[in-house]
Amino acid sequence: MIGFELSDEQKQFQALARTFAKETIIPVAAHHDREESYPEEVVRQAHEVGLLNVSVPEAVGGLGLSMLDEAIIAEELGYGCMGIYTILMASELGIMPLLLAATPEQQARFLAPLLEGPKLAAFALSEPNNGSDAGGLRTRAVFDGDEIVISGTKTWISNGGIADFTVVFATYEPELKHRGTVAVVVEHDRPGLSCNKLHGKLGQRASPTYEMVFDDVRVPIGNMLGEKGDGFKIAMRTLDKTRIPVAAGAVGVLRRALDESRAYALEREAFGQPIARFQAIQFKLADMKIALETARWQTWHAAWLADSGRPHAEAAAIAKAYASDAAFAAAQEAINVFGGYGYMNEYPVEKLMRDVKLNQIYEGTNEIQRVVIARHVLQ
Amino acid sequence: MILIVTAAVNGSLPKSALELVTVARELAGGAPVAAAVVGPEAAAAQLAGYVPQVRSLQAPELEPLRAEALTTAAQQVAAELGANTVVMSANRLGQSVAPRLAVRLGAALLEDVIAVSTDGGLRAKRYSYLARVTETVEVAGGGATVVTVKPNVFPLPEAQPGGSVAPFAPTFGAQDTRVTVGERSAAAGGRVKLEEAKAVVAGGRGLGSAEAFDQLVEPLADALGAGIAATRAVVDAGWRPYAEQVGQTGKSVAPDLYLALGISGAVQHLSGMNRSKVIVAVNKDADAPIFKIVDYGIVGDVAQVAPAIAAALEESQGS
Amino acid sequence: MKIITVLKQVPDAEARIRAGSGGVELDGVTFVIDGMDEYGVEEAIRLREAGHDVEIVALALGPARYEEAIRTALALGADRAVHVETDVELDPIAQARVLAEVVRQEGADLVFVGGKQADWDSAALGPALAEVLGWPHSDWTTELKLAGGALEVRHDTDDGQESLTLPLPAVVTTQQGLNEPRYPTLPNIMKAKRKELAKRSLDELGGAQPLTRVVAQEIQTRERRGRIIEGDAASAAAELVRLLRDEAKVL
Ligand SMILES: Cc1cc2nc3c(=O)[nH]c(=O)nc-3n(C[C@H](O)[C@H](O)[C@H](O)COP(=O)(O)OP(=O)(O)OC[C@H]3O[C@@H](n4cnc5c(N)ncnc54)[C@H](O)[C@@H]3O)c2cc1C
Ligand SMILES: Cc1cc2nc3c(=O)[nH]c(=O)nc-3n(C[C@H](O)[C@H](O)[C@H](O)COP(=O)(O)OP(=O)(O)OC[C@H]3O[C@@H](n4cnc5c(N)ncnc54)[C@H](O)[C@@H]3O)c2cc1C
What we know:
The complex is a heterotrimer.
Chain A: H1 8-35, H2 40-49, H3 67-80, H4 82-101, H5 104-111, E1 121-124, E2 140-144, E3 147-158, E4 165-171, E5 181-187, E6 193-197, E7 209-220, E8 224-225, H6 231-267, E9 269-270, E10 273-274, H7 279-307, H8 313-338, H9 349-357, H10 366-378
Parallel strand pairs in A: 1-4
Antiparallel strand pairs in A: 2-3, 3-7, 4-5, 5-8, 6-7, 9-10
Helix pairs in contact in A: 1-3, 3-4, 3-6, 3-7, 4-6, 6-7, 6-8, 7-8, 8-9, 8-10
Chain B: E1 2-7, H1 15-28, E2 33-38, H2 41-47, E3 53-57, H3 67-81, E4 85-89, H4 92-105, E5 108-117, E6 123-128, E7 133-139, E8 145-149, E9 164-168, E10 180-186, E11 199-203, H5 210-224, E12 227-230, H6 232-236, E13 257-261, H7 267-270, E14 278-283, E15 296-299, H8 302-318
Parallel strand pairs in B: 1-2, 1-4, 2-3, 3-9, 4-8, 5-8, 11-12, 11-13, 13-14, 14-15
Antiparallel strand pairs in B: 5-6, 6-7
Chain C: E1 2-7, E2 9-11, E3 18-20, E4 23-25, E5 31-33, H1 35-49, E6 55-62, H2 66-76, E7 80-85, H3 92-106, E8 110-113, H4 125-133, E9 137-147, E10 150-157, E11 160-167, E12 170-174, H5 186-192, E13 197-200, E14 212-219, E15 227-228, H6 233-247
Parallel strand pairs in C: 1-6, 1-8, 6-7, 7-13, 8-12, 9-12
Antiparallel strand pairs in C: 2-5, 3-4, 9-10, 10-11
One flavin-adenine dinucleotide sits between chains B (204-206, 231-234, 245, 247-250, 262-264, 266, 268-269, 272, 282-285, 288, 301-303) and C (35-36, 176).
């Protein structure tokens, strides 16, 4: 049978995250968006109440939350500010390869320290010359005795410059394409690593994005996850999971778009009546509601598949593509509901659209999601 | 027999005590009404101008007044007079004593009522859900009932002079005085009591500071002859005493005019003032929830608008 | 020392309340632990943090959905919980008799009760419970100290504040200002899962009969003029005074 009820505990996570979004994120979101500044205080408090790095397993002292738990929390935080949520989400993204491929020793070495403070992880796959084509990596990993030497450039790495460690994907044998790749944990303080913060983002401006330059960075071979040749596989299996929180964050943005539109439509008058009386406006709200329910259930379904060890790549791709496309459409319509005010940054809706645009792009563009889905359809 | 239980405040009968007479008469439907009054005999004599039988409660154990001692006294008067309905004010004293009395008398409790009726059993109306709902409650089994009455709702009764006052000396047990009362601080006197005021000027966090509160609110309250109220945010900040707090966990008021300055309009605040006849708000945020329930609103800075209202009042009274 | 904190689950203060012919409709409403009850849980935790050796038991009487509120109390720091599960709507006086039975069986020394319930707008449960138990109580309590087997409190009265000393055992009803309740953190929510939540039935506790019955409920509405007065401070103020005098006739 199917059960649609959240557990009491999940309802409490939800309540906590909702309160956190309302009291800690929303009041500062517009400021960090405008200033393109890092919300250090929010991240510190997220750590304090336990909302940071929630997937770290119980075995090393973490909470070991499930994908569904994470999705429930993600919706609330995304509702507050997708940009700020991306900081937390990208950290879970950096943790995921270790959940999938690290030895217990590696988990204890890298993940346990993350719990000690407001610390972050990062995930570096994309490069200046290739994003979607993740098999065509140019960053090199050279095996030198019991060390690996990394050289090359990664770009658009969320948290890159401020993370305690970054999981870096590199090739040791370009001829082998994706079969010649490795996943390596690189600590922040390794000599030869330099990070430059990228400026001028359209949205999610609170989330710091970096270019990471590896100039013969040496790490012990014990920092490699899995075996030689596993890199690409680990990256793909990671994204099959972490697309679910990307979808959940978009669901949060969608819900925010609906809430803001609803409130405004009831207040704003035109032609002597609240605009909510116009069917054209009502239909926009109805469409947002349809999308919200559909996106949330697909997201939770994908999370449930992942948690129960079932195949979930296709469901996650559907959730990510659908939720982010629907959220973008809803945010865009929310601007229409607000009319001229929607176009101004004094009101919250234009930010929703700028922010959620990124959910359509990162962790695999929505075109790539459709490539994945089509492959399953045709299989 | 319907018994009113009340206490004098600073030596005289509060307005809420007279409102109890109105309720008691409605409940009695012609049956006799009596009263028990804690305080000086003069207060009992005052009530005897409305109620035929008054018991003046005098005992050292009733000073200072403690919930358990008053419960004991009320129970004994009720027993002596054979009263099966007791009426008290839903002020803090009444809310503390009435539930105890209900337990002791094996009675039902109708709490904080705004209307009563007796056809087909005892029924009362009261608010619930943070005063967003009006509900009708009835006593399930018949039998004894204790009723607490929301202050400032019922009209004052007509006088019925000629009542008699008899002293009553309750007997107390050790438990009645086991709570020791220490230091007491009363709200600054001089101004009209908040619960009895026809107009209330209320201030919120938007006033900015304790000094600004005094400077902006006091002159307006003086000009209107109004009581002063505050939100929890203000009271928590220590700008004003707790006794001035209006809302879910403060006082509940219903003046003819409620002037809210720099108050956002949280449900918990509204639940204490949403029955006011006319509500006016001044807030710099046009989207503040308080504007949803106003009769008149001014969007603007209180620092400018409040003195302007005071000036306009002065001018209008002058002309 | 054993502290019992009584709690209720009520609609979120921001939830929209609707009423139909059958009274208030709570379908789809978000329920939370009553804010007033959180003060009690928090105060109990603070007593422990101040070095007192206390066991904190959360106690609730209500339908199955109350379990969520109970879990919140456990996540905040209560050690275990007792849930008297029933769908029977009991008024505060009837509730006090049932809860008193649990308090007696537990042998508690101190009971916290929310000062005023956000659903019934009732302040009766605390004093009624104290009476059934034969204990003293302090209501609307804003400060509390445990000193040598007695409680020293400060509480609101009708015209100000008062200090009281109460012998234990005692009932204390809360008031805002008593403390600032903490958030339940995620790790504590997880830990709460493993804490004991005992279920009791009304029958086991001697049964209960409601003494009052709600027969009708409607949303309180009042027509408001909703008029925003435009203009600079001086002219808006003058217009306001004119309206109060001539239209509303309250001056
Ligand atoms: C703010 C931000 C944060 C980011 N954070 C991270 C991070 O933390 N870690 C990380 O590794 N990356 C990160 N990225 C990178 C992101 O994942 C990539 O930008 C994304 O995968 C697309 O890659 P690309 O930009 O190289 O586009 P390209 O791959 O060059 O794609 C260009 C266009 O071609 C389409 N396209 C490409 N291949 C196909 C195909 N086979 N079929 C159909 N269409 C195709 C794409 O959909 C797109 O429309 C981030 C990006 C941004 C903007
Ligand atoms: C269990 C519980 C019980 C509670 N009980 C009560 C209660 O009994 N009574 C109560 O009041 N609250 C109560 N509250 C608190 C309530 O939820 C609100 O937090 C509180 O009422 C807010 O007070 P405020 O309006 O003064 O402050 P705020 O909400 O901070 O509002 C200040 C307002 O002032 C405006 N403003 C700022 N500057 C200016 C200016 N220069 N000119 C004009 N306007 C300005 C702002 O726009 C804002 O709207 C309770 C809460 C809980 C949880």
